[in-house]
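Continued from yesterday's entry.
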Amino acid sequence: MTKFIQAAAAAVLLLTGLVYAQIPGGGSDSDGLPNAPSHTYGAIAPAPVSSTRRANSFVSPAEAPYLPLSSREKFDHFIHYTYSPYTVLNAAYNATYAQMMGDPSGYGGGMEGWGKRMGSAMAGTEARSFFGWFLFPTLLHQDPRYFPMYRGSVFKRSLHAVSRIVITRNDDGESTFNTSGLLGIAFTESLQNAWLPENRRGMGITMSRMAGSMQGYATAYLLKEFTPDIWRFVERHAPKKLLRLQDKVPARLSNSFISDQP
């Protein structure tokens, strides 16, 4: 029975991982990663259908006007994320991985342990979305999106991506200290002390989770920054059959894989 549960967990982890890898910011969104610019900012062309056009459709901020998010748009994104199937897949992936690693040990094993991990993952994800995408960005009039460069040297683009942890834009489009993002991380990780096992609470552990979350942001920003380059590499080296299959994916669905607009 134990081997069956382990095999089932591995299968679920593989399935959700494959799907979640296609999600914007995939693999890290459970850490509260803000979404990349929407199509209104000009992150991608309106409807790139073919794989060839898809890789060349990204434009830099200098090529598109800044369009701020209204308070309603920030709230709508939070609500959309709340019931998005990506949110459930995200939580299932993290809960299954944590179950296989036995982390945290206080949740135990079996379906009961997995259920606790699933609930914890969902609660953390929703809290991150609420604090990081709506509450603090609205109160402080800041933009929670990541704005890529897409142009320049690898070093310059990497430095830009990592620096967005502490730098963002206000609703006027001007660069400012990312107070809303850092507060979102702090409040989310502190709130998790309400449901995490006792051995995973405390000031030191909370600070460690905050550092891990910031590292997760940096990783996701780097991935988003170099997404066009990844697409171009895939198009040049992927089998033709795979590219033909990719072109059959509906435009709206395929755009959602490379854009963070829900």
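--- second protein ---
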Amino acid sequence: MDRIVDQLTSYADSLTFEKLPFPVIQQAKRLTIDALGCAMGGVDSKPSRIARALAMETTGPLRATVLTTRQKALPDLAAFANGTMIRYLDYNDTYINKDTCHPSDNLAGVLAAAEIAAADGKDLITGIVLAYEIECRLCDTGSILGKGWDQGTYGVLSSTLGASKVMGLSKQEMAHAFSIACASNISLVQSRFGTLSMWKACAVPNAARQAVFAALLAQKGMTGPDPIFEGKWGFFKVVSNEPFELGSFGGDFAQPFKIMDSRIKPFPTGYYAQTAIEGAIELRRKVKSVEEIEEVTVHTFDQGAKVMAGDPEKWDPKTRETADHSIPYVVAVGLTHGNVGLEHFSEEHIRNPGILSLVKKVKVYPSEECQKEWPEAILNILEVKTKRGEKHSIRVFHHKGHPKNPMSDKEVEQKFRNLSRGVLSSVKVDGILDQIWNLERVKDLGKFVEMFAFSKCESEAKLSGLYR
């Protein structure tokens, strides 16, 4: 067996709920609340509606619940639909090292697999922690985004092991599922450049879909290519262009679990702009009106400049997906409104002449100072110059939700409540939060997911003739 696959599957096979420290279990619950809150916020988006509709056109004896409905679909398509809802707002947590990922993207696949396997809350927590561990360790070592490969290239691997774990696959079956997923799902980072399309929100959920499919195939006896990393045309040769070592995993030799390092977002935008937004909001208090602003300068790290200010489209966004990945746009919104919220990504706001006028005044430059702090700190330095010659500047290192500036449990809950407003009743929200805080006691995950049922989504599906 491939050396890396053997290492990964040995760890996955040996990890149990009983090995997880209390802070790790608590963090898994916090991030589950955050991710499912993001799903509620993204429920009405066009990609989410498309994915939900496709999922609910399917039938079969092995089915998982589609979030916001009581309907069940084929588990891989349920994972895709639920993952698209989680990811659409780009509001779910982020992990940073050599590469960047949103590890809660794994939740959709692990949850769907756990439901069809009749797994319980302890199993789900274990699968979530495992998936976070694998994806974050890969981000520590692989450095593939700069070579043109997308986050889903890692996400399909971590989701496959998380799904395989909760389905109770053997170590050998996990290895086959992993190799099938790895050989078949290398994705391009072009999804995140230029004018961003709806697929930006779907690329990694598609990895979760493929992960569940690979686990189901392996469970039925399908074998996968070996060696998948070390082979002549394997991952090391084609994707990473170099071999790497993974080292020890969480819980081994007192190693901390990677889930503790994931960062919760305070704003529904690309991660690299979180501290830039906080800086813009603070500077807003020092400027009497945005009409007085002559120029805004943002000094940032290389990745921030490349991803969120490296295309002309970032100064003239025409889609929500482009706007939430534009440092000029979100800084202009923060300076104008003193906040950046979901409401600021409607077409009306994106094409607002006043906002676009201010966007044109924003300059973004890569900075050696910011790069030296990366990736531990997300340093953005903002400077505002007014028409009267006044200058104001600010440095923000750690946004709210960073491990060095963490959100409290109450703040995580409040984010969920805010995102669920208009989707779930306050009574339902209270019940869901109680279930997640006591997730290790949940025996029926299908009933848990059904708690998110939203009458509007069910009505839409009935009108479309999608329920069978």
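The longest strand covers residues 293-300. Residues 281 and 338 are 5 Å apart (CA to CA). Will compare against the first tomorrow.
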